[in-house]
Amino acid sequence: MRRFSCLLFLVLLIQSKEIFGWETDNFSCVSANIEDSSKALNEETNRRFKAAIDMVNKESPEAKRSSLFKKKAGGNCNQEKLTNALSNVLASSWMGNLETWANKASNVDRCVPSPSDNIFKSFRNIDAPMAKLCGLRPVIRIGKTRTGIDKLSHFMKEGYEYWQSERDGGSLDQILQQGIEEEEGMFGWTTTGTKSYGDMCANYFGFLFWKSIFDGPRPYLKCENGVWFQMRDVDWNEYVNPCFDESINCNEWGGRPDKLMKETADAFGKAKLSGVKGLDQTSCPIRYGDCLEIGQILADNLKVLDTVVHPSCLAVIRDVDKGSRTPRHVKELEQ
Q: What ranges make up the beta strands (E) of 238-284?
């Protein structure tokens, strides 16, 4: 019955927009021993990247099987043709995207939150229907950052949508607003019970990735004599940072924001993380130093910082007592 309810819910969502990965629980995986998946993820991403280039250059058998590139593929440095090929292999909304691959790949180590003991366990079905009916996505490690595999889809798919919006003339404010509306609507508060700042962070850094495909000081691609070349490999560690981690870059619960849902989540963190070494507290953000790192990474764009970083982490960034590493105003912010 639970599987049927989940499938029905997904069908309804698909009618309104493409499907996204659902929620995760970073708190359940804080102390888990998770191997770094950077190498595997980089290899798979670059394999797909090169396959798309080969298709457009007509250098692989895949091109012969693809009706999409039958008409003079390559030969004229057509950015749109290559953009379409890359989006198909990296930013697909359907099965076969990087999130789906990471969920099954034997060389990706995953921490799977318990269906019966996770941060959503005490919520009502109506509070977080996707998480309650469909379960949670695994957590992986990229470099030192632990993140739900749903962030892979946010990075690639939503980052791509942000980039397309900019190419169509959208301003940064308009682009960031896309993420806010999704997290405060059907793909956030309404279905998962959370406004995920981690999702919006992954969206933004995915946007930076896509912006570098053809442009910027270090573009990934260059065309010479009608042939596309990859100038450098994709490395997820250039983009993934603690703001992808929902135990650092907190969720906003329930849409009001809902104080009871936050108290329930904090209680779970306290029960799960009490006694775990290396934490500043058991509620989000669990490590103040990670918030300070986010602040340094986004220091040059305060608009982005204010949009994709949760207020509790912002309080640490802006009001930290650097002697004791204790945020002065976090408690006031939460009251």
A: 251-253
Residue 246 C-beta-side C-alpha neighbours within 13 Å: 31
CA 77 to chain centre: 31
How much is the CA Rg of the chain, to the nearest whole Å? 20
Q: Residue 287 and residue 243: Cα distance in Å, rounded?
A: 12
d(CA 262, CA 266): 6
Residue 253 phi/psi, 5-degree rounding, is -95, 135
Measured CA to CA, the distance from residue 325 to residue 198 in angstroms comes to 23
Alpha-carbon span 199 to 207, nearest angstrom: 12
What is the reported pTM?
0.84
Taking only the tens place, the pLDDT of each residue in 68-102 is 554 444 456 889 999 999 999 999 876 568 999 99
Q: Which amino acid is at 1?
A: M
- Measure the CA–CA gap between 334 and 32, rounded to whole angstroms: 28
Residues in the chain with pLDDT values less than 50: 1-5, 7-21, 60-67, 70-74, 132, 257, 321, 323-335
Non-local (6+) Cβ contacts of 149 within 8 A are 21, 24, 99, 102, 103, 110, 137, 138, 139, 140
CA atoms within 13 A of residue 273's CA, in its CB half-sphere:
27
What's the CA gap between 234 and 285, in Å, rounded?
29
* Peptide bond just before 113 cis, omega within 30 deg: no
The string of pLDDT tens digits covering residues 167-177 is 999 999 999 99
Distance in angstroms (rounded) separating the CA atoms of residues 151 and 135: 16
Tokens 């976090």 found at: 330
Report yes or no: 162 and 203 within 8 Å, Cβ to Cβ: yes
Domain limits, the chain: 2-334
- For residues 10 and 123, the answer to whether their CB atoms sit within 8 Å is no
What are the beta bridge partners of residue 223? 228
Q: Dihedral, CA atoms, 25, 148, 104, 86, nearest 10 degrees?
A: 160
Q: What are phi and psi of 168, to 5 degrees?
A: -85, 5
Structure tokens belonging to residue 53 = 């280039």
What is the pLDDT, as a whole number, of residue 67?
A: 47
